[in-house]
TrEMBL record:
Keyword annotations of the record: Pyridoxal phosphate
Organism annotation: Algoriphagus oliviformis
PROSITE patterns linked: ODR_DC_2_1
Name this polypeptide is given: Y4yA family PLP-dependent enzyme
Keyword Metal-binding attached: no
SUPFAM superfamilies xrefs: Alanine racemase C-terminal domain-like, PLP-binding barrel
Domain Orn/DAP/Arg decarboxylase 2 N-terminal: 58-262
Cofactor(s), names only, from the UniProt record: pyridoxal 5'-phosphate
InterPro entries reported for this sequence: Ala_racemase/Decarboxylase_C, De-COase2_N, De-COase2_pyr-phos_BS, PLP-binding_barrel
Record's keyword annotation contains Chloroplast: no
Amino acid sequence: MNTLPKLTPIVSPWMEDIIANKPLLEELIAEYGSPVNIINPKSMAANYGSFLSTLTDFGLSHGVFFARKANKCRAFAEQAAALGMGVDTASLQEYVQCLEMGIDPSRLIVTAAVKNAELIRQAVENGSTIILDNQDECVQVQAIAHRLGKQALVGFRLSGFQFGDEKQYSRFGFDLEDFLPFATEALTGSDTFGNLAYQGLHFHLNRYSTQERGMALGQCLDLASQLKKAGLDTKFIDIGGGFLMNYLQDQSQWEGFREALEKAMLNEIPPITFGNQGLGLFVHQGKIEGSLGVYPFWNDRPQGKFLNEVLSHRHHGGQRVGDLAASQKIEIRMEPGRSLLDQTGMTVARVAFRKRDSRGDWLVGLEMNMTQMLSGSADFLLDPFLISEEENAEEEVGVYFTGAYCLERDILLKRKVALSHLPEVGDLVAFVNTAGYMMHFFESSAHLFPLAANLVYQEEAGAKAQVHHFRQEVE
Ligand SMILES: *Cc1c(COP(=O)(O)O)cnc(C)c1O
């Protein structure tokens, strides 16, 4: 067999302890079913610390709001608040649950893409900042705030930033060019929106270009100066989420994977993905084209480093945007989701069967389905861990993991994964670092499969011997 490229994930000690404890995992799966998600919210602290150190280096007043939507478990929102963060909420349910946890409404922001009347009413009543996306929302929030006799604290989401020759498209937000005339006319020139209290600007961009983020921040700073002339004082600029995290240990493996994928697609080596899928790459006239449609699972600028690059962008080649914001006393806010969940969760499933398909490939059926570990990108490129009794020094084997949905495409990882030996029925497979979006953002209950249990890992304080306590998470 040709050797399959490996993608070795970074694994924190708490995960290693669990992976090494097969009896414990068997107990959990016997009790809760397969798969189980195991989360460790305490591990958020290091990620938050990384952002904080960059923000304080710049001397910025700041607000970090954990994007609640990156994981459903309430324990993460609780932990975010305990660490001193705010929470970015994207639905009435997320918002109300945070209130019920006792999080101060001034530390909650509402960025929901669609805001129903009750969400708006609660946010206005409690004094949480609402990020407005369009004029219809302004009208609705105005009406509700007027009825309540309150001022609604509002920020405005912007898009359409200019990056060189390209004006970046987004379906979200007000167009940057339209916003100044709108704000001067509607927010200050009349009392149409007399109950909207302008607080600041917001953007959340796709792609992982720190330069684009820096440019967008620069364009918001310019806009803030113009708004000031119109009498609108910008208290904050919220630069959204999408800060990178790094999943993998080794850059050369990452590069090796891509090389192998290209070779496989050109039929120079046997396929390394199911059906020889290109994950965004394709072959055209004998050449590889397209772009790899996966998250940059390996990168060298996670968390605070990424933020530092954004804030270090030189505005029109001059001052750093972070310094400009600091000197203009504008608070920098951000809403990381995934990157705050780095090393905070894993998913473990039980092997149901092994078989060879008609192509001669090994398929390993797991008691889970594709929605229980689904990446928004083309694949989740981390090697899983096989947890099994016996390592008979058998031959390495390449397998595809398949799921329980009756769909041909329920292939859990598109990659063929190299295992030290063929698993036995009843062995376990652990996928690490799945808390950010992977474990249940897209989870569904087709076939009436119950949703996976979410268990909170708690270390015994000060205990030498590892004691694990698990509390089942209520969503
Ligand atoms: C999804 C989202 C975030 C969080 O993005 P991450 O990639 O998880 O950091 C923040 N803000 C808004 C408006 C979002 O839609």
